Amino acid sequence: MMLTNLLTLAALAKSSQAAQSSLVSGTAPGFASGVTGGGDAAPVYPTTVAELTEYLTSSSPQNIVIKDTFDFVGSEGTKTEKACNSYSCTPEENGQALLNTLDGCGSTATYDVTVDVAGMVGINVASDKTLIGQGSGAVLNGKGLRFVDVSNIIIQNIAITNLNPKYVWGGDAISFSDTSKIWIDHVTTSSLGRQHYSFGTGSDKAITISNSFMNGKTDYSATCDGHSYWGLELVGSDDQITFYSKLKYIRVYHESANQWLTIPENHVSYTSGRTPALSGTTLFHAVNNVWADNSGHALEGTSKGKGLYEGNLFNNVPNIAGSDFVGQLFSSQEADVGKCAASLKRDCVTNEYTNSGTFNFSDTGFFSELESLSIVAAEPVSSIKDSVIADAGNTL
User: Fold this and answer.
1) Among 37, 152, 269, 362, which residue is least crowded by beta carbons within 10 Å?
2) Where is the Pectate lyase domain (predicted)?
3) By the 8 A CB rule, do 228 and 221 touch?
4) Is 352 left (phi over 0), alpha (psi -120 to 50) or beta?
5) Which pLDDT score is estimated for 359?
């Protein structure tokens, strides 16, 4: 009896240790379901970039709370890099130059530029971490986040911005490689040198990005039109990513209409490509999101990418996925939604299109991969429209 009691107490203690902090709003939907981050560790409140970095990289579970701007610009100095003008507009013309860090300039003439070191590589976040922003003022200025060979992490209600936006390869907001159980929620990303979200060639399992705002409006555009080309780069091996928003709305300025419009989110706005680039063997489930004001194409990728899209709104996206797309996609056309039932245990939900191109794919060859995963329940786009809640990005 005593041994049984001891084992019970030990099990309860282990369960308590794994519990998600009460500081976190909600729980992770989709593939990252069950993530606990810092668990029941006592919260810490850094006040300097050094303290924040120390907590994020420590070997102990941490619940880290911030409410102000942490300004990393200049904190690691600057350095000279070679760059070239690979696009039709230069940084002086509101374009981007290409850093020659991977010899991408080839035979194109290069010149010296000065870049901020902190922006080029994100903080290497350790496992078992929760980073929470209090209010709308929690900002990482000039520094992103990097997850490599780690797991069990929650990032909620922060903004990441200003990563050498003049230069391609100037910095990714959030990058992943060989990770699992990571939940990114209510995060705003903007003004970047490269990707909003970059998934490397390693395998990233059970990742959820929810209720977040990819703000592609930029002063330095590779496509020379104020739209960011670098959105979601997914080149991983068998990645599992849920891209999800649940019954939320945001306000977005629509230039062509010269007015504020209210539309649902995750919100991917003012991009011109790679939202996403399904370039690896990624399984991508996009549910109840909005793609808006895309000047180029939304989807691109290789033959191994797999995407299920349901309950999304495409607003002013003339080219969602061209006829030359070679991956596997299911776009939840009305006639096909019943094909989801065997794997999802429900029908899929149709998407909605306003001033957008066609999106008509019905590949189901990857549906068996969904059967063992936590799948988000999609809502009809019409029900999302019934509410007006400004909630995209770091708005908790």
Assistant:
1) 362
2) 82-321
3) yes
4) beta
5) 96
What is the spatial distance between Cα 392 and Cα 259, in angstroms, rounded to a whole number?
18
Is the pTM higher than 0.85? The answer reads yes
Spatial CA neighbour of 282 closest among 360, 197, 225 = 197
3-state SS of 341-376? Answer: HHHHCCCCCCCEEECCCCCCCECCCCHHHHCCCCCC
Residue 274 annotated as catalytic: yes
Task: Locate 244 and state its tokens.
Answer: 């999800």
Q: Could you please report the per-residue DSSP string of 158-214? A: -EEEEE-TTEETS--SEEEESEEEEEEES-EEEEESS-SEEE-SS-EEEEEEES-EE
Contact 72, 140 (CB under 8 A): yes
Q: What is the mean pLDDT of each run of 10 residues along the chain (396 residues)?
A: 40 52 93 96 98 98 98 98 97 97 95 98 98 95 98 98 98 97 95 95 92 92 96 91 60 38 58 91 89 92 92 92 86 97 95 94 95 86 50 70
Burial 146-163 (b: 16+ CB within 10 A, else e): bbeebbbbbbbbbbbbbb
Domain ranges of the chain: 43-79+118-384
How distant, in Å, are the alpha carbons of 2, 25, 34, 255, 318 from that of 43? 34, 15, 20, 42, 46
At 299, list the tokens.
């989807």
Residue 58, both tokens: 């420590």
First to last CA, the chain: 48
Q: Say which of 146, 194, 274, 346 is annotated catalytic.
A: 274
Q: What are phi and psi of 217, to 5 degrees?
A: -70, 125
Fold entry, domain 43-79+118-384: Pectate Lyase C-like (2.160.20)
Cis peptide before 276 (omega within 30 of 0): yes
**DSSP, residue by residue, 217-255:** B-SS-TTSSSBBS--EEE--SS-EEEEE--S-EEEEEEG
φ, ψ at 359 (rounded to 5°): -150, 90
Looking at the chain, the number of H-run helices and the number of E-run strands are: 5, 32
The sheet carrying 69-71 orders its strands as 69-71, 139-141, 159-163, 188-192, 213-215, 267-269, 290-292, 313-315, 352-354
CB 39 within 8 A of CB 17: yes
